[in-house]
Amino acid sequence: MIPRVGGKPVDESCRNQIPTLVCVGRISRQKDPQFLAQALQNVGSPVRCIWVGDGEAQLRQVLEDAGVYVTGWVTSREAHDHISSADLFVHSAEWEGAPMTLVDAAALGVPILVRGIPHLDGLGFAKGGTTPRELGSSIQRFFSEPDYRTQVSGQAIESLSVHSSGAQRRALAALYQETKEIRSE
């Protein structure tokens, strides 16, 4: 058994019969569904991909043509259910700030691979590469190499420990304390 983020066990074949990855967001140029569709062509074994969300019809068709199941808009509870039942969360956006879906996925115990873009560098999640070929290879590696799966899971745990509301509250309190001490000198 391989430890899963959040303590959920995963055997060598992952918990789903067909390894399942999930993506979440509005289907738009920003989220770059074409990048994901191309990446999936570079995964060497069958995977199931679910996109939670909806958006531009032409880009939705790109996903569906690549074999991605698009849920359409769903409730928050349904989105969390899709995320928590996946083996891997993949974030393919071409540009992004600090997406809450990454923190949500980590909190739900799902390992995360992100596209290697500068906007996500400081968040600490495992980078899957900067090209569709690299991301596809990283997805394949995640599902076929237990050590890599453990590494990706560990990075999600570490990132969650920094980006949780409790960690942010402690960091802000420390900053206020430091500012207070500097002013009183």
List keywords for this structure.
185 residues; alpha/beta; Rossmann fold; two-stranded antiparallel sheet; 46% helix; disordered N terminus
What does the model show?
The protein is of the alpha/beta class and 185 residues long. It has one domain: Glycogen Phosphorylase B (Rossmann fold). It is 46% helix and 15% strand. A 6-stranded parallel β-sheet has the order 5-4-3-6-7-8, with helices on both faces. It has a two-stranded antiparallel sheet with strand order 1-2. 37% of the residues are buried. The model is unreliable at 1-13 (pLDDT under 50).
Task: Give me the secondary-structure topology.
Elements (H helix, E strand, L loop, with lengths): L1 E2 L5 E2 L9 E5 L8 H9 L6 E5 L4 H9 L3 E2 L5 H10 L2 E4 L8 H8 L4 E4 L10 E4 L2 H13 L1 H18 L1 H19 L2
Parallel strand pairs: 3-4, 3-6, 4-5, 6-7, 7-8
Antiparallel strand pairs: 1-2
What's the helix-strand series?
Answer: EEEHEHEHEHEEHHH
Classify the helix fraction into a percent range.
40-55%
Question: What is the alpha-carbon Rg in Å?
Answer: 17 Å
Tally of domains: 1
What separation lies between the terminal Cα atoms?
A: 55 Å
Quick one: biggest sheet? 6 strands, parallel
| CATH top level class name | Alpha Beta
Strands in their spatial order, largest beta sheet: 5-4-3-6-7-8
CATH superfamily: Glycogen Phosphorylase B
